[in-house]
Amino acid sequence: MSEASVAKVLSGTELSKETKIGLKKQTDALAEHFNGFKVHLVIVQVGGRDDSNVYIRQKIKSAAEVGVKASHIQYPKTITQTELLSEINKYNTDPSVHGIIVQMPLDCIENIDSHLITNAVSPEKDVDGLNIVNEGRVAIGDLTGLIPCTPNGVIQLIKRSGIEISGTRAVVLGRSKIVGAPVASLLLWHNATVTICHSKTKDIEKEVSKADILVVAIGKPEFVHGSWIKPGAVVIDCGINSLPDSSKKSGYRLVGDVHYTSASQIASAITPVPGGVGPMTVAMLLSNTVQAATKVANIIYKSQWNLGILPLKLQRPVPSDIEIARSQEPKNIMVLAKEIGLQESEVILYGNKKAKICLSALDRLKNIKNGKYVVITGITPTSLGEGKSTTTVGLVQALAAHSKKNTIACLRQPSQGPTFGIKGGAAGGGYSQVIPMEDFNLHLTGDIHAVTAANNLMAAQIDTRMFHEATQKDQALYDRLVPTVNGVRKFSPIQLNRLKRLGINHTDPSKLTAEEIASFSRLNIDPNTITWNRVMDTNDRFLRKITVGQSPTEKNRTRQTCFDISVASEIMAILALAKDVKDLKERLSNIVVAQDINGKNVTADDLGMTGAMAVLLKDAINPTLMQTLEGTPVLVHAGPFANIAHGASSIVADLLASKLVGSDGFVVTEAGFGSDIGMEKFFNIKTRYSGLLPSTIVLVCTIRALRMHGGGAIHPNTSVTPEEKEEALSKGVENLQKHISNSVKYGIPVVVAINAMNADTENEWKIVRDASLQAGAIDAVVSTHWENGGSGAIKLAEAVISASQQPQEFKFLYDLNMPLQLKIETIAKEMYGAKSVEFNENVLNKLNTYESKGYGKLPVCVAKTALSLSGDPNLKGVPTNFTLPIVDVYVSVGAGFVVTIAGEISKMPSLSTRPSIYDIDLNTETGEIIGLS
């Protein structure tokens, strides 16, 4: 043939360069569109073969060129198959990893099945395309997944030649799993007529001569000669072999499976060796990695969930809460988790109806913009309840199921104290409930028990430490605190922390002086200053004061103390306010349990408790995923006492929900009690620590409660005229207006939710609506979610959506730099309407002490009755001209606030004469719980 007829060289090097330029544009776009999103490839290597190292360096270099982070993970030759499978699974479940390749061959001592290893890589991350699932997809013509790299590179080179694959006759030499078979499948699904030749094929030369497209991957150097080739055919040479060549410095030359010199005189296009298929294999590897990452990014940042909504079967009259809850079969919780964008590795199942969500999801979603944040509060509650939780659930059902907004409700876990006391449950009500309601109201996933265990371990350590210090001399105490184990004596990390605080620089236990030993070993706790009580999650008035240490073994070292209810524990408040595990540990370490005889603080870290408590709480820090009756997501987490602590669900649940819903979605959470208590603490404590600012306040009220605040009868059977009802309501709306006034002071739009009841009238609703707008609410909406579920709260959802788009000028009620006394007075006057605040001398002294110790800049948590704006539960409506008495104060250093006690507040509730215990039972035949409501 003439020189002009020499085949076109299909340079894989040039095509791979062009491909990588396109991939770089894609990774740049991912980073720009998805807030710095980074594509991540993991290269797993066993052993250290020189040829493998060359290939890996090439892949890492190419990855860097296209903006892909490549991590080279090298394991020793001694790794076992089980160990390697376990390691690969770690990367399968790591959401930051988008592509995984296992460098072959494995350089190992142990017998490891390479096919088992390649199949162990998740199909979604198998960027080599060697998993049997991806191979199977190619075989059946599904080319939307991850295509094996070398075969895909072959197809791209064929297309580069300019030939139209469809309708051609293609011959593939070689049937290997890695190249031959998948190339044949790809050509077939590009509409070529394909023949596969192999070692058993008769008259291969004749078959080759028929090919318009010839792909050679047979593993024999220069096997195919130009005389075999059909004139004008496209030849793709996948082979790479070394032949001795004394003219080369290396002593060998690289050749393909095709005799290049003769073939290039016949073919219309041909790939060189090297520089042909090889570079395209790497380019296709990176293309698959970017493809896999793009799919992940689109899932993470997708704007709209595709929730499977559970239809409600509304009945009239409305059945009991437990009947409604049991009539609805919840979705499998893993289905819900995937619907809202969680990955399987981030979900810890507790059966199939509830699950813990790992905080690792927060890191994966960290670049997503937060959703809109809605806080539910209420008027001053009555004994019959105003339905804040029910409204919260109804609103999220309306937003998620009916308005098609990504929405998550964030609720506290109910305490068993109220559940068996007077409330009987707190999962919402009617057709706006969290299910399974029995699980929600009882043990759930054990968080309250974990808090109880951590709290009581601390209490046990306090008393035990005082006992041992009182019964041992310095050296003996020191020797037991820092024992010699297996011939080695050393301080534990938490003991090193204490040494540092004491200014002792030694890290060798044998180097301490007698004075340093005494200082290190003795906490010298003053029993009269201990503020740490034992807890249990049961109402029990007889534990409000107890004596401990009465056993003869305690050698007359008795002291008076008490039990609190578990949800009043500072640990519960810490769990709710911690932003992550690190923050949790730091807050735990800062807990102050007492003072020593010199007035210095004794902390959890001094007692060696930080790590142990963190271990007990390691699962409790993860929020629990549940669902509403309509199958919309709910995160249930923490349960701080709304009187003693800040009374709101956890920060981590809100942060996680804000990322999951995305920038156009909604997170709806609840603040305990009314705006004077729950909402004030929500803003001035929780919001300060979370950094999340609500876009809307929803203020819940009922006609019944407002009538009571106006002096009307609350009992449903009391007979009064419509005129008397409206007269009482017109007076009672002043309470609502005060709560609206409280709310607008924060600069957030307020929507009033009128929780409708059957006895309400249109005119009563009008009275409330007019009063609400007059007081500064931007809307007041009647909501029938209790009897209709989400459909009954659609108008409320529309009002919330509209309010969330209003401009906001958020401001805190007080500056943290203000003195503690002034902060307390500001809350009392602005939120409660107090004329003045009364501090006794003991309280004033404590406030001064706290400020001298550096606690003056902490926010304030006022513990007072929820039944009145004042400190007197008997004063309804809007009390004026009253004085708020502050009878005690203490600091929760770990939680990060100063608690002031206004009036009579107990941290251990009691059981009534007839608690809900009488109604709760277990059906021994069905296993069903009876009596929760």
Automatic annotation (TrEMBL):
Pathway: One-carbon metabolism; tetrahydrofolate interconversion
GO molecular-function terms, A-Z: ATP binding; formate-tetrahydrofolate ligase activity; methenyltetrahydrofolate cyclohydrolase activity; methylenetetrahydrofolate dehydrogenase (NADP+) activity
Domain Tetrahydrofolate dehydrogenase/cyclohydrolase NAD(P)-binding residues, every copy: 148-295
SUPFAM superfamilies noted in UniProt: Aminoacid dehydrogenase-like, N-terminal domain, NAD(P)-binding Rossmann-fold domains, P-loop containing nucleoside triphosphate hydrolases
Domain Tetrahydrofolate dehydrogenase/cyclohydrolase catalytic intervals: 10-128
Record EC number: 1.5.1.5, 3.5.4.9, 6.3.4.3
GO aspect biological process, one term: tetrahydrofolate interconversion
Any one cellular-component term (Gene Ontology): cytosol
Classification via CDD domains: FTHFS, NAD_bind_m-THF_DH_Cyclohyd
Family note: In the N-terminal section; belongs to the tetrahydrofolate dehydrogenase/cyclohydrolase family. In the C-terminal section; belongs to the formate--tetrahydrofolate ligase family.
Name the UniProt record assigns to this protein: C-1-tetrahydrofolate synthase, cytoplasmic
Species of origin: Aphis gossypii
Upper taxonomic lineage: Eukaryota, Metazoa, Ecdysozoa, Arthropoda, Hexapoda
